[in-house]
Amino acid sequence: MMVRPDEYVPTNYLSVLIMVIVGFIFGLGGLIFGSFVRPRFYYKEKLVPYECGNEPSGLPWQKIAIRYYPIAILFAVFDVELGLIYPWTVGFSGLTSTGFLVMIGFLLVLLLGLVYDLKKGILDWHRR
Q1: In angstroms, how far is the first alpha carbon of the chain from the final one?
Q2: Residue 51 three-state SS
Q3: Element (H, E) at 7
Q4: Residue 81 within a domain
Q5: Measured between alpha carbons, how far is 56 from 119 in angstroms, rounded to an integer?
């Protein structure tokens, strides 16, 4: 449906624009106000990295092995996948066979990705 130029009224969006501008003013105003009223002195203890109330162990910028990172990425991928599959399952009664075949293709692509990850050994925790 095309909107004719004489029917398009940009003033309908003026209230949204005003609210966005007011939001930016409040956000930046709070940051600027906070920089004026905060204390200007620093204690030595405030500059030490915080480790749950304990004294820091080791250097603050030492490298650590992040073994859970690939698993976290896989979790995020399959979580998004569930977010896409759920509406399909809820509205399944109204879909045709084409919708069913598209979802089967989507699941096959995800299954191929999971098989690739398993062959690569991403989920093998003790390998590393």
Answers
A1: 58
A2: strand
A3: none
A4: yes
A5: 39
Q: Is residue 89 part of a domain?
A: yes
Q: Which domain holds residue 112?
A: 69-120
What value does the CA radius of gyration of the chain take, rounded to a whole number of Å?
Answer: 27
- Whether 87 is in a domain gets the answer yes
**Structure tokens belonging to residue 103:** 């979802």
Q: Which is nearest to 49 in space by CA: 41, 40, 58?
A: 58
Which run of H or E residues covers position 115?
helix 97-120
When divided into structural domains, the chain yields a total of: 1
CA pair distance 117, 119, nearest whole angstrom: 5
d(CA 116, CA 106): 16
Residue 92 lies in a domain: yes
pLDDT in tens, 62-112: 676 677 788 888 889 889 888 888 888 887 777 788 888 888 999 999 999
Q: Which of the 8 DSSP states describes residue 118? A: H
pTM of the model: 0.46
- What is the C-alpha separation between 5 and 72, in angstroms, rounded? 50
